[in-house]
Structures are given as C-alpha cells and as structure tokens.
Amino acid sequence: HPVNIPRREKDFQGMLEYKKEDELKLVKNLILELKPRGVAVNLIPGLPAYILFMCLRHADYVNDDQKVRTLLTSTINSIKKILKKRGDDFETVSFWLANTCRFLHCLKQYSGDEAFMKHNTSRQNEHCLSNFDLAEYRQVISDLAIQIYQQLIKCMENILQPMIVSGMLEHETIQGVSGVKPTGLRKRTSSIADEGTYTLDSILRQLSAFHSTMCQHGTDPELIKQVVKQQFYIIGAVTLNNLLLRKDMCSWSKGMQIRYNVSQLEEWLRDKGLMVCGAKETLEPLIQAAQLLQVKKKTDEDAEAICSMCQALTTAQIVKVLNLYTPVNEFEERVSVAFIRTIQTRLRDRCESPQLLMDTKMIYPVTFPFSPSSLALETIQIPSSLNLAFLTRV
Amino acid sequence: RTSSRPRILLKAPTLAEMEEMNIFEEEDSP
C-alpha cells in the first residue's frame, strides 16, 4: 500500500516544476480562463502572480533561458489577450492590474538586487533567482502595468460618467434651497422616472464598489490612492464643465448643493482613510466655482475677494460663471457688466491658458512603488479549482 | 551570497515585439 505522506513545508523550495509542453495549458487555465468573479474570489490576493513567479523560478533554477523567455512572453501575451477580450469589465481589469503589479514586485524582491532585498527574511533571500537577470523584462512588465492602469481608468470612467452630472448637479438632496417649490407629491408619482436618475448616493456606492473590488484583489494601497485621485479628478472636471455650459446650474442654491456634495465626497475619503491621496485637491476648481456662486458680486472689495479666492479657476472660467449667474429669487440680482470688467482687469496679468473647459481625458502619470510581500513562497498551495495539477511543488 | 552571484542578463523584446510572437496563432486564425 503506497502511503501518501505529505511533505513538510520547510522541505519545499517555493518553486513549481512544469513541462515545456504544459506552458500553454498553464497560461490558459491560470490567465485566460480564470474568472475573477468565480474561482478567484476565494484565492489569496495575488495568487496567480505567485504561481507564475514560482514556475519562473524553476525555469531559472534549471538554467533554461529559453523556458524563462517563453514563460514570460506567454504570460504577458495572455494578460494582454484577456484584457482585449474583457477590457470593459472592471473586475477583470482590476484583477490583472493587481496581479501584474504583484508579479513585478516578485521579480524585484527575488532579483538578487540588494536594493530590493532589505525587507526579505533570510529564507526569502535563498529564493532569489540564481541564473538570470530579468531587469529588461521588468521594464516590459512595468509598461504592461501602465497599459492596464490606463484601461482601468477608462473602464471606471465609462461607469462613472453617466452618473456625474445627474448626481453632482441635477439631483437635489437639500430640500427647498433651489427656490423651486418642493415637489413631494410629484416626486411620489414620478417614481418610475426617478429610478433612472443617478444621485450622489449612486456615485458614492459606485466608488465604494470600485474600492472594495481593488482591496479584494490585493491592489497595492499606493496604487488605490492613485486610482481614487483620478476618479475624483474626473468627477470634478465633468461637474465643472457642465456647470460652465449650463445657465440653470449657475445659481446660489446650486453652489450650496455642490458644496454639500463635495463634503459628502470628502467624508467618503475620510471613511476609507484616503484623505492624503491628493483626491480632495483635484476638486479645488469645482469647490471654488461653488463658492463663486455664493459670494457677493457687487463692490470692488467683492472683486478683490473673488480674485484671491479663485486661484484654481482660469479667468475664462471665472468670467463665464459670472456671466451665467442666474438669480433664483427677487432678493438677488444679475452680476453687472461693470463688475465683470473689474474682475477681468484685475486678472489681466495672470499667466495662464485661455482654457474654458477642463480636460476630462487627462490621466495623471502612474507609478508602482515597490511593495515586497512577507508571504513565504514555500507555503503556497495551489487550490484544485485552478486545474493546475500538472504543476509539481518543488 | 545570492546577491553577489553574477547573473546573465536576458535581453527582452518590447511589448509590441512580443505581440508579434503570437503564442495563440492556431486558435486566433479563422
């Protein structure tokens, strides 16, 4: 009777042996056919990256440069292929961004380069690559990660875009400030129409969904911060652009509503521990536009106050808001032509672009700060659900 | 020490060049 005695973990060297002819099967099962919403939900974050790296370690260990090259090429091409196929699915893109970054971190952490070994345990140092320097491949994988990041931003933008104007500008959560009579009765009867309307709450829920998906996938916290900053930039830019194009959005009460909405977004950041990621700062032009709707716009002193307050807005934007400003009741009046002239004169010497609308397609440059993992490769086990029984733990 | 051992630098193709080495040729062709 053959008795299957499980090996102790310390006997493993954190490598996975595979036959050359199984390489295609490996990338198919692990990359192309893996469903982030199915099997992958229960995996340890970054598991596909660790598995691929452990296979790579074995190819390096047996000193087979061709095997190393083809595994890296197949991995990169498979990730590109799955993103081509399911690039509009946020979960897929987020999953492969997290795993590509983890793979990149592994290539650094186990490169043998002392700069990346500072936080390694002595056992982890024994697991460094022994034959090949993959610095050039690291660059290619970093380029791939940038591509995936840009795809993630596009994907996220496609989902957020239709919610922004409705949730940030049109929908009113503060009752009775708009000057329009409260419409309790009408609201109830038009509930079917309302179902298609996005509110600020829809935006906040969507932001939370993005955030929790990225956390689940083990995305580096520093990378999450960059994604959130980009999300806030898009929300701020789209909202401001619409305000600059719509007279009905330039009133005292809209200013109030926008400031309330911004405070809710800030509250969301605080709740997620993201107050220092630069996201709030991207809303500054919108915040100033909302303040501009609310301040007095009559005297020379008012003009001076406006000029010193609106540093994040261009002259074109300030003048546009003042021109569009619409009183909602009899206590207010339109901004006089003379007042707008005064503002223009005061801002004449500002060095800036004549730009009116913000560039909603702008993407901040992304970086992937090195983030080593404390996970011991020799302890990693492969769940049978991944269909990788042809890999041997070494 | 692992870190001081010389390793052979593997020259890498660019991302675009890699795409040309299509590993899924059979399956991709109509």
List the helices and strands and how they pair.
The complex is a heterodimer of chains A (394) and B (30).
Chain A: E1 16-17, H1 23-32, H2 47-61, H3 65-86, H4 90-109, H5 122-126, E2 132-133, H6 135-170, H7 184-189, H8 191-195, H9 200-216, H10 221-245, H11 252-271, H12 279-282, H13 284-294, H14 300-309, H15 315-324, H16 337-346, E3 392-393
Antiparallel strand pairs in A: 1-3
Chain B: E1 8-9, H1 15-20, H2 25-28
Structure notes:
The complex is a heterodimer of chains A (394) and B (30). Chain A has helices at residues 23-32, 47-61, 65-86, 90-109, 122-126, 135-170, 184-189, 191-195, 200-216, 221-245, 252-271, 279-282, 284-294, 300-309, 315-324, 337-346; strands spanning 16-17, 132-133, 392-393. Chain A has 394 residues and is mainly alpha-helical. In chain A, helix 11 (252-271) runs antiparallel to helix 13. The longest helix of chain A is centred in the middle third of the chain and has 36 residues, at 135-170. With 30 residues, chain B is mainly alpha-helical. Helix content of chain B is 33%, strand content 7%. Chain B is built from two helices and one strand. Chain B is elongated, with a radius of gyration of 16 Å. At the A-B interface, helix 3, strand 2 and helix 6 of A face strand 1 and helix 1 of B.
